[in-house]
């Protein structure tokens, strides 16, 4: 009988651990979000190799991303409790700055930028 209790206890522990693993994985990305979009010119054509800037309002750190062939850019794992400002530059011209608010609860935020 002690062997059965031991196996039953081990089985219960395994079940509890299996139930907790998805929670731990989910907790790792809690509060994180992604920002993505495209950079366009004045004629709505995508701009390849534009520099996209993302400024953190808490510490003024700036991250950059060079837009792809389709004008696309992406910033991953951004804090959901921080405001950001995003803009793009290409060949001496700059897009208007756009805010990314901490009140925006979406996990993926899309912001297109236009350089005229």
Q: Mind explaining what this structure looks like?
A:
The chain is of the alpha+beta class. It folds into two domains: 1-30; 32-114, Sandwich (Immunoglobulin-like), CATH 2.60.40. The chain contains one helix and nine strands, in the order αβββββββββ. The chain has one helix at 2-28; strands spanning 32-40, 51-56, 62-66, 72-79, 84-90, 93-94, 98-100, 108-110, 113-114. Strands 2, 3, 5, 6 and 7 form a five-stranded antiparallel sheet that branches. Strands 1, 4, 8 and 9 form a four-stranded mixed sheet that branches. The radius of gyration is 22 Å and the shape is elongated. The termini are far apart. Residues 23-29 have low confidence and may be disordered.
Q: Runs with pLDDT <50, length 5+?
A: 23-29
Number of helices: 1
Which range does the strand content fall in?
35-45%
Overall number of structural domains? 2
Element order: H for helix, E for strand: HEEEEEEEEE
Instruction: Report the radius of gyration as a whole number of Å.
Output: 22 Å
Task: Give the gist of this structure.
The chain is α+β, with helices and mostly antiparallel strands and 116 residues long.
Q: What brief labels describe this structure?
A:
single chain, 116 residues, alpha+beta, Immunoglobulin-like, 2 domains, five-stranded antiparallel beta sheet, four-stranded mixed beta sheet
Q: What is the strand and helix layout of this fold?
A:
Elements lengths: L1 H27 L3 E9 L10 E6 L5 E5 L5 E8 L4 E7 L2 E2 L3 E3 L7 E3 L2 E2 L2
Parallel strand pairs: 1-8, 1-9
Antiparallel strand pairs: 1-4, 2-3, 2-5, 5-6, 5-7
